[in-house]
Write a structure and sequence with these properties.
With 176 residues, the protein is α/β, with parallel strands linked by helices. 38% of the residues lie in helices and 19% in strands.
């Protein structure tokens, strides 16, 4: 690492599912365990149904919350008719982090081979908040966190990371 001090992010976890509850949300549990083990703070957590407008509304509410820096959603990134999380995320993004999906696919290929093409994981920025849509399996959440997010959400990671540019994400909204 570096001589920089760790900066904890306030991270919200949103599980998208018509069938999960808090008691059996293994993917949400996986993300919470990992973000807390890394030293970050769980800012909020909830489960919403597979409904594009409802997901987008929840994302917008969390983006507007000054106590949330990052939103991780899990579920609804596949190809079926009920999988609308990616569309909801894109309804909210100001800018998409195109390489996130590409890197996630690369990581997934090492684990599940060509089945990785069935995921539409994505990332973006809105209102100074990072948003990432991850698949609904605990394994995919582990891969996204362990291989990408744990590093990019760590201010000490070099040569660059998401945390160091966080103060500038909404600079276009500020008066000049």
């Amino acid at each position: 690492m570096t001589d920089r001090e760790f900066i904890a992010c306030r991270i919200a976890v949103l599980t998208v599912s018509d069938t999960r509850s808090v008691t059996d949300d293994r993917s949400g549990d996986t993300l919470v365990a990992r973000l807390e083990a890394a030293g970050h703070v769980l800012a909020a957590r909830t489960i919403v149904r597979d409904d594009r407008a409802g997901i987008a509304a929840h994302l917008r509410a969390w983006v507007a919350d000054a106590d949330i820096d990052v939103i991780l959603s899990t579920g609804g990134t596949g190809l079926t008719g009920r999988d609308v999380t990616v569309e909801a995320h894109r309804d909210v993004y100001e800018k998409e982090i195109d390489a996130f999906g590409t890197v996630f696919t690369h990581v997934s290929m090492r684990k599940i081979g060509t089945s990785a093409v069935q995921s539409r994981a994505c990332g973006g920025v809105a209102g100074g908040t990072y948003l990432f849509a991850l698949p609904g399996s605990p394994g995919a959440c582990k891969d996204a966190w362990d291989e990408i997010l744990v590093h990019q959400l760590d201010y000490r990671h070099k040569p660059c990371n998401f945390v160091e540019i966080m103060p500038r994400l909404d600079e276009h909204l500020r008066r000049k």
